[in-house]
Prior knowledge:
Blueprint (H helix, E strand, L loop, with lengths): L1 H14 L2 H26 L6 H8 L2 H15 L3 H14 L5 H13 L4 H4 L1
Helix pairs in contact: 2-3, 2-4, 4-5, 5-6
Amino acid sequence: MNNQAYDIASFFRWFLRVTNIHRVFMYVYMITPILVLSVMFYKHKETIGLGDLLVMSIFFIPAFIHYLAIIGLRNGRVWGRILSIVIAVLILFLFPIGTIAGVFMLMQLFKKDWKAKV
Length: 118
């Protein structure tokens, strides 16, 4: 029982790091267009055009921005912290999960020892 509690606690400690929250959002932004395109291709094989691919590629832009934030935070750069704060403010509007993640990220990024919390 104690080992199971430790495993759950270690998972939440891992997940509740700012870089890992960025990683989860990055994966969501990368997987979403792939899933949508696969469903579109399965149902409408002849109607998928270049415009559909361009619209779906827009999802990779926020994924890349999250990736840049991860790199900046891991290296302890101030620009990574600023980028993370901007992202956290923007994801506050993604109710309810984004709001919770955004508030937590802002709390961690505004601490004096923010480099240890990422």
